[in-house]
Design a protein that fits this description.
Distance between the termini: 22 Å
Radius of gyration: 20 Å
Number of helices: 9
Strand order of the largest sheet: 9-10-11-12-13
Strand content: 15-25%
Mean pLDDT: 83
Order of helices and strands: HEEEEHEEHEEHHHHHEEEEEH
Largest sheet: 5 strands, antiparallel
Low-confidence stretches: 181-189, 191-205
Number of strands: 13
């Protein structure tokens, strides 16, 4: 996978494509959809985003907490960016890849973020839980902070690539979705999917084992196919609208593009992609 580059244009293009109704604030006008003739300093949180900040008076402790949080996230395989403003009390950590959050209501997304912060932030720390609410404004990346008049600079972008669970924490996600009783079973299933390497899974001789242990996201990553949520660019026709839909629950996919209609299970997809690869 190509290494992603994070800039203000990357963020604007991303929002314009996937969250065009996201609201911005320039400090004067009411919250509004971004306009090219205005200079904004704040924005709402994105539905698939987690923002982390420690806004206490102890600046050194805030930095320590962000560093420890970052190490916890990196060990767990997540992707995130860390920004800092000169004179500010705390760095800002942004996770942009939690796509499965989009399937939930705005209130349920806020609950998930709170649980996530409690798990990955240092024990006894006090992260700003108000940022779990999408309507809570945050300083816009790469522009001057309204309070310090200094740019919100990117310190580092830790890119672990797309994970099979789209950045979601398996334990929290399954517990909220299925409840306590089904949590362990779902956790083991997703853990097995992520732990199996693509090459190992494709060598399995039993069809059910492949379907149960391999996700569509892993296949798309292997063959460099772009996807978003549960839709992907169909590799079998000139697709520009993410016409291919898929589900890991039953291992099926189908292209809804005009004149295409290709469909099948995950093994069918692999065979067709291998046919293209081998000419």
């Amino acid at each position: 996978m190509k290494k992603r580059v994070l800039t203000i244009r990357t963020i604007f293009d991303y929002i314009d494509e996937y969250f065009p109704s996201l609201l911005f604030w320039d400090g004067i006008h009411k919250h509004e959809i971004r306009r090219s003739d205005r200079f904004y300093k704040h924005r709402w949180g994105m539905p698939n985003e987690i923002r982390i900040e420690f806004d206490t008076e102890d600046v050194n402790k805030n930095w320590e907490n962000i560093n420890e949080t970052a190490m916890n996230l990196w060990k767990a395989g997540y992707s995130f960016a860390i920004f800092s403003v000169e004179g500010g009390r705390s760095p800002h950590l942004h996770m942009y890849d939690c796509d499965e959050l989009e399937n939930w209501t705005i209130d349920k997304r806020a609950i998930y973020r709170r649980k996530f912060l409690k798990k990955y932030c240092p024990k006894g720390s006090n992260p700003d839980f108000e940022l779990c609410e999408e309507r809570h404004l945050c300083a816009l990346e790469f522009v001057n902070h309204f309070k310090y008049n200094k740019p919100k600079k990117l310190l580092s972008f830790f890119d672990n690539g797309q994970l099979a669970n789209q950045g979601m924490d398996t334990e929290i996600w399954s517990k909220m979705k299925y409840g306590e009783d089904k949590q362990i079973k779902e956790k083991k299933l997703l853990k097995n999917r992520r732990s199996k390497k693509f090459g190992d899974s494709i060598k399995e001789t039993q069809r059910d084992l492949i379907i149960n242990n391999l996700t569509f996201e892993e296949v798309f990553n292997k063959y460099n196919i772009e996807y978003k949520g549960k839709h992907a660019l169909c590799p079998f026709h000139a697709d520009g609208k993410n016409s291919l839909s898929f589900t890991n629950n039953n291992g099926l996919w189908k292209c809804w593009g005009a004149g295409c209609g290709e469909k099948g299970d995950i093994i069918t997809l692999i065979k067709k992609l291998e046919d293209i690869k081998n000419g």
